[in-house]
Amino acid sequence: MMGKMEIGRKLRRLRKSKSLTLEEVAQRANLTKGFLSQIERDKASPSVAALKQILDVLGEDMSHFFQDAGEPERNIFRENEREPLDEDLPGVLLETLTPDIQYREMDPILITLEKGGRLTDDDLDEEEAFGYILEGKIWMLIEGEEHKLEKGDTFYVFPETEFSVENRGKQRARVLVVAY
Fold first, then answer.
1. Residue-wise pLDDT tens digits, 112-126
2. CB of 137 closer than 8 Å to CB of 169
3. Does residue 70 belong to any structural domain of this protein?
4. What is the distance between the alpha carbons of residues 132 and 127, in angstroms, rounded to a whole number?
5. What kind and span of H or E run contains 75?
6. Does residue 15 lie within any of the structural domains?
7. What domain range is 104 assigned to?
8. Which residue in 10, 73, 123, 143 is a FRET match for 52, CA 20 to 30 A apart?
9. Rounded-to-integer distance, Cα 130 and Cα 135, Å
10. CA dist 32 → 18, 39, 168, 175 (Å)
11. Residues 6 or more apart from 63 whose CB is under 8 A from it?
12. What is the CATH number of the domain that holds 111?
């Protein structure tokens, strides 16, 4: 819980979301790696100046960083809280399953493909992604090779992987994707 304002935990998430190491941030913020580690573990409190240096390195402004101060960290998300992602893809609905989490490392997405729905790697802004077919059938083209996937099947794609997903079946298909 962030009731007592555990800024270290939040700083660590932010740093990891930017794919930076402790050493990189410490060096750029003119702090020691040990001190930054203590801050991230909430074993030490940074001065306002040190916090500003860290946030500057992470590309975050102080007011945005503290905008949700005092709000408890969310762990449970209800179906009616899902938010469609801004995509204009015919026959495809992308929904984020964990709205309003800042600095997350994973992005769980529910993809619903109606008959004829199609998306490509360009439609997902993620580095790596794991997918689990919840219902229906999809046809997946990975690096030029076609695969038919059914309920219970999974896939994993890397950042450089070119792929497309299409529903050629008669019923909708739903895929849980956890992107990183």
1. 999 999 998 888 766
2. yes
3. no
4. 17
5. none
6. yes
7. 79-179
8. 73
9. 16
10. 19, 11, 56, 44
11. none
12. 2.60.120.10
Question: Residue 94: beta bridge partners?
Answer: 111
Q: Reduced to 3 states, what is the DSSP secondary structure of residue 160?
A: coil
Average pLDDT for residues 92-120, to the nearest whole number? 87
Rounded to two decimals, the pTM is 0.67
Torsion (CA) 85, 158, 17, 134 in degrees, nearest 10: 40
> How confident is the model at residue 2, as a pLDDT?
40
The 3-class SS string of 129-173 reads EEEEEEECEEEEEECCEEEEEECCCEEEECCCCCEEEECCCCCCE
Q: Which of 173, 79, 169 is nearest to 135 (CA)?
A: 173
pLDDT tier for residue 72 given thresholds of 50, 70 and 90: low
Paired strand residues for 145: 142
The candidate with the shortest Cα–Cα distance to 128, out of 179, 59, 174, is 179
Please tell me the distance from the alpha carbon of residue 23 to that of residue 37, in angstroms, as a whole number: 9
62 contacts 28 by C-beta, under 8 angstroms: no
**Residue 19 confidence (pLDDT):** 84
Read off the CATH number of the domain in which 26 is found.
1.10.260.40
Q: Are 73 and 3 in contact (CB under 8 A)?
A: no
- CA-CA distance, 132 to 151, in Å (whole number)? 8
Q: How far apart are CA 53 and CA 50, in angstroms?
A: 5
